[in-house]
Design goal:
The chain has helices at about 5-15, 20-25, 30-45, 60-90, 105-115, 130-135, 180-185, 195-205, 220-225, 240-245, 275-285, 290-300; strands at about 50, 55, 90-95, 120-125, 140-145, 155-160, 160-165, 175, 190, 215, 235, 250-255, 265-270. It is α/β, with parallel strands linked by helices.
Length: about 300
C-alpha cells in the first residue's frame, strides 16, 4: 500500500467525482481509478460503490478512509518532526579519515553543513589503526577509510589509480599504461607505512614487478609538491585530483585495471551517534562515485588540449 493511493482515496471522498479528484491530485483519471482498484485488491475489500459514476464509499471504504486520514496525518507530522530536528540538530561531528581520502571530504561536509547549519565538523587525518580505536572508544562519530564487507560501512567509491607523469615522457601519450612500464619510471610514492602504498605494492606484485621509488613521502601534499617539479612520476588515487588537480606540464594517464580494487567508504561504531546517522542519511542521496568519475574523465580529456 502506498501513501499516494490513500491520498487519491481522500481526494475522491472529498470531491465525490473521479475526474475532479484526479485533477486535484494532478494525475489522469485512469491513473487514479487504477490506484483505487489496486488498493481494493491489496486490502481485499470493496472501497467504492461504482455505477457509471462515483456513487459512494462502501462501509469498508469509510473505515479505510478513516485510517487514510490518520496515516496521512502521521506522515505530515513525521515530516514536521524531521524538519524541526534538522533545524535544531547541533553539536560537533567528529570525522577521522585516512590521508588519501581527505581530498574527497568536502563532497560530504559541504552539503552536510548546508543541511545542518548549527553543526560543527572536525576532520582529523588518522591511520586505519587509529580510526578503529577512535570508533571503538567513541572518540569519533564516523570515519572515511578503506572498507570491506562490514555491515557498519557505507561504500562511497572505488579507488582508481592513474599515472601522473611529465608531459614529455613517452608514456604520457599512451591511452593506457602497463604496471610494468610504470614501475620502470623514476617514481615518487607514499611511504610503506601508509595503506595506500601497501595496496599499490600488491598491485605491482600482481603484475610481476616491484617499484623502487626515488622519493617517498608521508603526506599526499608532499608527494604532489615533488611531482609538480616534473622530475618524477607518481601513481595516484583519482580522488586526489579533487584537491590538487593536474600540475602544469604533467599529464594524467590511465593504468590498466588491477586485479583488486579497494573501496573507500564511511564507517561508524556499534552505536552511531545522531550526528553520524544524519551524515549517513545525507550521504545516501549523494553520488560521490559519479562526481569523482566525471572529475577523472575531465583530467584525462585535458591530455588533448
Amino acid at each position: 500500500m502506498l501513501l499516494r493511493q490513500l491520498e487519491y482515496l481522500v481526494a475522491l471522498a472529498r470531491e465525490r467525482h473521479f475526474a475532479r479528484a484526479a485533477e486535484a491530485c494532478h494525475v489522469s483519471q485512469p491513473s487514479l481509478s487504477a490506484a483505487i482498484s489496486k488498493l481494493e485488491r491489496e486490502l481485499g475489500v470493496p472501497i467504492v460503490s461504482r455505477g457509471r459514476r462515483f456513487e459512494a464509499l462502501t462501509p469498508e471504504g469509510e473505515r479505510v478512509l478513516l485510517w487514510a486520514h490518520r496515516m496521512l496525518a502521521d506522515r505530515d507530522a513525521l515530516r514536521q518532526d524531521l524538519s524541526r530536528m534538522r533545524e535544531s540538530l547541533s553539536g560537533v561531528l567528529r570525522i577521522g579519515a585516512i590521508p588519501t581520502a581527505l581530498p574527497t571530504a568536502p563532497l560530504l561536509t559541504a552539503p552536510f553543513c548546508e543541511r545542518y547549519p548549527h553543526v560543527r565538523v572536525t576532520l582529523e587525518s588518522l591511520s586505519s589503526v587509529e580510526i578503529t580505536r577512535g570508533l571503538e572508544e567513541y572518540e569519533l562519530d564516523l570515519a572515511m577509510t578503506y572498507v570491506d564487507s562490514s555491515v557498519r560501512a557505507m561504500p562511497l567509491y572505488e579507488e582508481r589509480y592513474v599515472l601522473l607523469t611529465p608531459a614529455d615522457e613517452e608514456i604520457a601519450s599512451r591511452p593506457v599504461a602497463r604496471w610494468a612500464d610504470v614501475a620502470a619510471l623514476p617514481l615518487c610514492l607514499l611511504t610503506s607505512k601508509m595503506r595506500n602504498r601497501r595496496i599499490l605494492d600488491g598491485v605491482f606484485a600482481d603484475a610481476g614487478v616491484q617499484p623502487v621509488p626515488v622519493i617517498e613521502a608521508d603526506t599526499v601534499a608532499t608527494l604532489w609538491a615533488h611531482v609538480a617539479t616534473r622530475k618524477w612520476s607518481s601513481v595516484i588515487a583519482h580522488a586526489w585530483l579533487q584537491m590538487f588537480g593536474t600540475p602544469e606540464g604533467m599529464r594524467v594517464v590511465r593504468i590498466e585495471d588491477p586485479q583488486r580494487v579497494p573501496q573507500i567508504g564511511l564507517v561508524v561504531g556499534e552505536q552511531p551517534s545522531m550526528l553520524a546517522r544524519a551524515m549517513l542519511g545525507l550521504t545516501r542521496g549523494l553520488d560521490v562515485r559519479g562526481e569523482l568519475d566525471r572529475l577523472l574523465h575531465k583530467h584525462l580529456d585535458r591530455r588533448d588540449l
